[in-house]
TrEMBL record:
Location(s), subcellular: Endomembrane system; Golgi apparatus membrane
Pfam family, one: Per1
Protein name: Post-GPI attachment to proteins factor 3
Keywords from the named record: Golgi apparatus, GPI-anchor biosynthesis, Membrane, Signal, Transmembrane, Transmembrane helix
Membrane-spanning ranges: 42-69, 81-99, 111-130
An example molecular function term from Gene Ontology annotations: hydrolase activity, acting on ester bonds
GO biological process per UniProt: GPI anchor biosynthetic process
Transmembrane helix keyword on record: yes
Function: Involved in the lipid remodeling steps of GPI-anchor maturation.
Topology of the protein relative to the lipid bilayer: Multi-pass membrane protein
Length: 145
């Protein structure tokens, strides 16, 4: 259903901007007006448990792909250790997001600690990005000579 709504919205907008007439103008304005109401409808249907399962699946799948890449390319890309540290950090801190507990010291609940941990998690990704960019920069400078 979601796809149909957005296809109709963008199709009517494209048709209106390509050929401005009464019918295309009517459909563009009505779909544009109705789309925020559809978002409100979706918010009431939001399923937190499904959202958490989807996020967990996404993280595990992404980690698996990176792990396979690192296993096969470790000799060439020694900096792949940092991406594994990044995902290891996500797994280490994920209980803060997955399990709820009362606030510590009356202030820090599980979700706030998850966000605080994300600041540290990103620090483990930064060296990978820098080293990977430098690797390809050096590689491309040798290829152009």
């Amino acid at each position: 259903m979601n796809s149909i709504v957005w296809i109709l919205l963008f199709t009517s907008s494209t048709m209106f901007h390509a050929r401005d007439n009464v019918i295309t103008e009517f459909s563009d304005y009505h779909f544009a007006f109705g789309s925020p109401f559809y978002w409100v409808y979706l918010m009431f249907l939001f399923d937190y448990a499904f959202h958490m399962k989807l996020c967990t699946f996404s993280i595990v799948t992404s980690f698996s792909i990176w792990l396979i890449w690192c296993i096969f390319t470790f000799r060439k890309y020694k900096h792949c250790f940092w991406i594994l540290l990044f995902y290891g950090s996500i797994f280490a801190f994920s209980p803060f997001e997955l399990f709820d507990f009362p606030p510590l010291f009356g202030h820090f609940d599980a979700h706030s600690l998850w966000h605080a941990a994300n600041c540290l998690i990103v620090l483990s990704l930064t060296p990978f990005i820098i080293k990977d960019a430098n690797f390809y920069l050096v590689k491309s400078s040798f290829q152009t000579k």
